[in-house]
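HUMAN: Spend a minute on the protein record below and explain its fold to me.
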Amino acid sequence: MTLAASISIKDTLVLLDGQYSGLATGIAQGSYALWLGSGISRDRVIGLDGVLAKLIEFLRSKVTANADCCYRVALNKIIDMAAPDATELAQIDFNVPSDQWACIKAILGRLWGQYSAVLSVELPDEPLDYLLWNGLDFPATFAAQQADAEHLAVGMLALEGAVTDLATANWDGLLEAAMKELGYDETFYRITVTGQDLRNPAAAAKLYKFHGCALRAIAEEGTYRPLLIARSAQITGWNTDNRFTIVRDQLHALVQAKRTLMIGMSAQDENIKHLFAKVNQQNGWKWTDAPTPIVFSADKIGDDQRDLLIVVYGQQEYEAHRDAICNEARLQAYAKPLLLALVLHVLAAKLEVLANDAHAPNLDAAARTAISTGIKVLRDRVADAGNGDRLGLARAIAAVLARARHQLQDGTSAAGGQRYFPLDDQPAHLMQGKPALKSSGQREAAVALGLVGLEEATAWTSSVDDPEDPRSGALRLTSSGASARVFLAANDDNITNLLDCGAFDEADSDAVVICSGRVAERQQRSPSGDRRDGSLGPRYIALGPMLSEAADIDDLRDRFRGEVGL
């Protein structure tokens, strides 16, 4: 297994903290556009592997005994593109399902980079898109799809304002499905195929589906089926097709204005190379620009990706610095670990900004750095805990953050999954000093999370409960002798709201409620006692006053530990 395929989310974060810290900061600041290819859908039926496999089986199932059978001729032509050796040819039997051929994985692997040629194979008297529309049973294959970890991660990055421009050659509706799962409809993305959709009302993020949109092709076949770009001639013709003039101009401007992170995309299509080649003709990017202008999520730089680097940076520069350019451009983590690591990085970066803006007059730079370290400890713990089930992790991040934010901000804790509630809809650096955040309670809550992280594995261990349970908090803390649900509340009114909605009640001795402001006297419960003394009822912590009074970071930690009382 390659490094990019086997790397953990935690180790990807190590890369983002180190060699690729510039890219990580750039993502958090909204400096990168995402270019997404079929690799982000590989674990779904509509990935290129699945498309090619389904197409081969479609043709095989229609082969007759006639030597001149048009399906036999077409299938043989496709198999020939994979250049099978004698052993592999002997393993191909049109009388048995293609998934039983011993060589099918090898065949599909070699056809991966030739998908447009495969879909260009014609059958007599059939439309040119027959293999795409009929062979793949396009309406059924692409009508209903379940988002994977990659698509949910992209959705969260978009909702957090970190990624506002996305370009994809994928037809599928997985990004849209992810946005619906996060609680939003597809109008969150301004989806455009030809560019005309950009004239519609503004949306939070632009999604350029420059090879067509499956959902629209199914819903409005007459308009959007002809806009599905699949065959070689279509890809070549896209560069001059007047229907795509607006989207070409917009993508050209995007490549000039924003840095590029390509994920799951080999850059093999000629129209993509052409777009990037035009940049070098107009005072384009330099490979020495920081952060790196073009980055590929890849185990190694392939020929097509190398060609793209040459046309962007120029042949002379590439030839003189090829090793350095390729090393800078290669991030050895595939879509799942990379996108989930980016989500965790962005959330942690925002929490650090919030914590640094919290009013705490006696905390110096070293103290603020310590709190940031605590936030990273929690970030890394999440990465480790969710590495084995990455789809589960994506869903858990969304669900836990949503519940914690609704409890903090609104004092609500409804049953079931909650709509994703971003920390802020702007990039991290634009949150610094933002007036609207002063009274939100988020700054003090971010400090609380940093303090929790500083005590991780020493005073307690953090975890999360079922985020669909209305009585679960932002997290759970467990020590050798006790366990507590931790709730975050922006103000005293929200504490009352949480009591009223049943998130916890006055008899719950396992509840710790951290308030960003002051807490009413009627709700004070043994603020500094030991949890083992048998006291009943929730523990209320007024963190805002604590921050104002703390003499230094050690004093703050002592006070916080004492009031949590585990």
